Amino acid sequence: MTTTQALPAPDLDVEEYSVDYLNEVFGPLNFEERIQRLYDFFEEKDVLMTSSFGASAAFMLRLVSDNRPNQPIHFIDTTYHFPETIAYKEELTKLYNLNVVEVLPDPTQNALTRDEEWWKDHPKMCCSINKVVPLDPIKADHKVWISGLMSYQTDFRSHLRIFEQQGDIIKFHPLIDLSEGDYLYWSSLYKLPKHPLESQGYGSIGCTHCTQKGKGREGRWAGTGKTECGLHPGFFVNKQKAS
C-alpha cells in the first residue's frame, strides 16, 4: 500500500501518550501507515506481536514483515494445534523470513488439561493454562501489543478501537476498521497463501478439540457460548497512559 498523506510527527516533549491521543493520531491513517508509525512512538523492544498462524494470519505477518522485518513474532504452541497449522507456520516463516519465537505452556499443567480433557467441560480454564498464562510474563516486558483483530469478526471485536488499554499493556489493532470485503481484496492483491484447512470449510482455526468447520468464527467452541480464547478481552479504562 502506498502512503497517501503526510504522517503527523509525535510530540517529542511528551513522554507518555494516552490511548485517546494515539487513536486520534492513528485514526486517519491506513493500515500500513499505522504499522510504520507505531515505531515512531514505541521502540521495537517494547513492541509485542503474536500470531496463531490461523486463517487470517498471513495478512498481518506480511504487513509487519514488509515494514519491520526484525520484529519477533510470538507463537503460542498450545500443543493442540492442527498439523496443518504447524505446516502453515513453517510455510509463512520461510516465505516472509519471520523471526518466530515459540511460547509453550507449563508442561505439567498442559498434561493435566490433556489427561482430563478440560476442553470438554472447562474450555475457559484450558485456554487460560495453555494460552493466556504462558504469554503473561512476555506481555510484562512490552508496552504495546500488535494484534490482527478485525471488527467484522465478532460482536466483541466490533466495539474495539485502534488502541485499547488492556491492563498494563496497550493493544494495537491496525486492521480493526477493515471490512470483510477490504480484507478479501487486499488478501487477493497480495496473493496471500491460505491456511490448508480453509479449503476444507474452516473459517477460523484454533486448537483441534475446539475448532469445527464453519463460516467465520462460528466453528470455534461451537455450542458453548464462548467466542474468544481469553487473550484479547478485558480492556480497561482508555484514559490510562502508555509510558
Automatic annotation (TrEMBL):
Residues annotated to bind [4Fe-4S] cluster: 126-127, 207, 210
Q: In the UniProt entry, which residues are flagged as the active site? A: 229
UniProt keyword Iron present: yes
Q: Which cofactor does it need?
A: [4Fe-4S] cluster
Picking any one GO biological process from the record gives: hydrogen sulfide biosynthetic process
Q: What is this protein called?
A: Adenosine 5'-phosphosulfate reductase
HAMAP family given in the database record: CysH
Q: What does this protein do?
A: Catalyzes the formation of sulfite from adenosine 5'-phosphosulfate (APS) using thioredoxin as an electron donor.
Molecular function terms in GO for this entry?
4 iron, 4 sulfur cluster binding; adenylyl-sulfate reductase (thioredoxin) activity; metal ion binding; phosphoadenylyl-sulfate reductase (thioredoxin) activity
As recorded in Swiss-Prot or TrEMBL, the protein's gene is named cysH
Spell out the reaction equation it catalyses.
[thioredoxin]-disulfide + sulfite + AMP + 2 H(+) = adenosine 5'-phosphosulfate + [thioredoxin]-dithiol
The cofactor note reads: Binds 1 [4Fe-4S] cluster per subunit.
Source taxonomy: Bacteria, Pseudomonadati, Bacteroidota, Saprospiria, Saprospirales
Q: Report the subcellular localization.
A: Cytoplasm
The record's comment on protein family reads: Belongs to the PAPS reductase family. CysH subfamily.
